[in-house]
Amino acid sequence: MKRVAILISGGGSNMVSLIECMTGDHPARPVLVLSNRPGAGGLAKAEAAGVETAVVDHRAFETREAFEAEMDAQLRKAEADFVCLAGFMRILTPGFVEKWRGKMLNIHPSLLPKYPGLHTHQRAIDAGYIEAGCTVHEVIPELDAGPPLGQARVPVLPGDTAEMLAARILPMEHKLYPAVLRRFVEGVRAPIGLSLAADTPKKVEP
Ligand code: GRF
Asked: What does the pLDDT average to over 86-107?
């Protein structure tokens, strides 16, 4: 059985979808939820799900390297085989990323390579694209640039605000990340795609 650690900074809705998928015949189990923010809402959800939690508050460290060394120690202590970034809002140094290279995934709310970084939903709307979505990718030192392992697409609708688009994309994140994680743990590296249309029941005319 493989051991998965999940890194969060916030509400942890993706974390919940990952924890929930790792049951039954799944080849992995969640062994640690680690937050850099003591107040992250996801911590209570992880505890409620019976998953061990840890806080490594980045503000308590003088350097990024010292902060990451403590995170790395926690991950090793938990004997994690894989690390999933799920709304983890600290940029990781190349040194940390190299330690977990090939074993670390991230979810990003855009169709990478479009819109790495922040404010992805507004940027997609401003650019006038009819489609947006999310990407799960392997983490490499360059931000949001690792090989994509899965993408889910949703339409951008007329009048969409960033909040409306985010609310359409987030449920797809919750489907995509578990689907990619399972394949990743099983050693599959070919990317997959999901689309909202494929998932939405067709309206049957009477
Ligand atoms: C998600 O949109 C994720 O793609 C982005 O941050 C958000 C985290 O949401 N990186 P949650 O904490 O998983 O609810």
From this structure: 97
Residue 98, pLDDT above cutoff 80: yes
Position 127 confidence tier, pLDDT thresholds 50, 70, 90: very high
191 CA from centroid of ligand 1 (Å): 20
Question: How many Cα neighbours within 13 Å face the side chain of 174?
Answer: 14
> Residue 69 corresponds to which tokens in the numbers above?
């060394």
List the alpha helices (DSSP H) in the chain. Answer: 13-21, 41-48, 64-77, 94-99, 120-127, 162-185, 196-199
CA of 163 to the centre of ligand 1 (A): 13
- Ligand 1 within 6 A of 136 CB? no
For atom 14 of ligand 1, which residue has the closest CA? 13
Residue ID of nearest Cα to ligand 1 atom 1: 87
- 73 vs 55, 66, 99, 127, CA distance in Å? 12, 11, 12, 42
Say what angle helices 41-48 and 13-21 make with each other, to 10 degrees. Answer: 20
Query: pLDDT value at position 193?
Result: 87
Percentage of the residues of the chain whose pLDDT score is greater than 90: 91
Cite the active site residues: 108
pLDDT of residue 194: 80
Report which of 107, 113, 197, 123 is spatially closest to residue 154, judged by C-alpha positions. Answer: 197
